[in-house]
Amino acid sequence: MSIFLNEFKEFAVKGNVVDMAVGVIIGGAFGKIVTSVVNDIIMPPIGWLIGGVNFSELKYSLPAKEINGELVEATVNYGAFLQTILDFIIIAFCIFMLIKGINKLRAEKEEAPAEPEAAPEPSNEEKLLTEIRDLLKNK
User: Helix, strand or coil for residue 70?
Assistant: First the structure.
């Protein structure tokens, strides 16, 4: 049991859990921002363009049914569903752009270092010494 606790402690302290928690918190806040952008900025002009329709109020009403002496109406709220899909598309696109930017930064950082410069041309003295060495070897 203590091995399990030690492994969990090592996992939690590594930083991966902290990074993930920060990501979840920021993601939740980002989701609220995107929902506000969709509901308050994008959808009103779209509704206005198509005749003043408020998408969150779009619904299909099923026939009312009497339950316990009361007429109960069920609705299929497809307008809210459409807004949720638009939220998802915008969030997915923003995350895609963020990941793409991070990958680009990583690629620039991990680029292979420039090839080492070619050895300089040997001087005349070095060439002469090399020839003398080769001649002595051949004797």
Answer: strand
Structure confidence by residue, pLDDT tens digits, 42-70: 878 887 887 777 777 888 888 888 888 88
Residue type (1 letter), 36: S
> Are 55 and 47 contacting, i.e. CB atoms less than 8 angstroms apart?
yes
Instruction: Answer whether 82's CB lies under 8 Å from 54's CB.
Output: no
Q: What is the pLDDT of residues 107-139, one digit of tens each?
A: 887 775 666 677 788 888 888 888 888 888 887
* Residues paired with residue 71 on neighbouring β-strands, in sequence order: 66
Look at the pTM and tell me if it is higher than 0.70. no
Residue-wise DSSP of 22-44: HHHHHHHHHHHHHHHIIIIIIHH
Fill in the amino acid letter for 48: W
